[in-house]
Amino acid sequence: MIEKEDAKKVAEVIGNNLIGVSHDASNFQKLPDSFWGYFARGHDKKGTFGVILTYSENEQDVDDLIKNYEEWVAKNKNEKSE
Fold first, then answer.
1. Which string of DSSP letters, residue by residue, matches 3-50?
2. Residue 33 has pLDDT above 80, yes or no
3. Structural domains of the chain, count
């Protein structure tokens, strides 16, 4: 479980990164209107973390992406524990 100071730092880095992205409209010019995603990577005292932000006009796209990620996590978690 992530400790509260690490969680604070993660939220701070994500927020600052997204604020920086939002200040430049050109970051969004080539995004398709119906579906897009954004990935940010950072680190805290204990290791690395990533954030995936996605948008879709079709709810199923987002549900499928989350499902695929959860399956990937489960598979990789099992491989590491073997």
1. -HHHHHHHHHHHHHHHHHHHT-GGGGTTS-SSEEEEEEEEE-SS-EEE
2. no
3. 1
